[in-house]
Amino acid sequence: MSPLHRLKTENENVVKVVENLSAIAEENAATTEEVAASVDTQVQAIQNISQASESLADIASQLQSEVSKFNLYMFYCHFNKIC
Asked: What is the pTM of this model?
């Protein structure tokens, strides 16, 4: 094999490797974008859960307050024998 032919073959091999690396880089970029979108979706879901938890805590606090009023009323009624 002549040196020129060998050089041409090696050059073609290098071009193929670079093309393969380029394809891999493109696939990695696409995958990274998909992961980023998935993370954004998860962050939004966590924020929604956090807001729902805060709302539930407020409702539970209000309920506890109302139950306390009811218990106080029932104690008052029972103590004064008016219920």
From this structure: 0.62
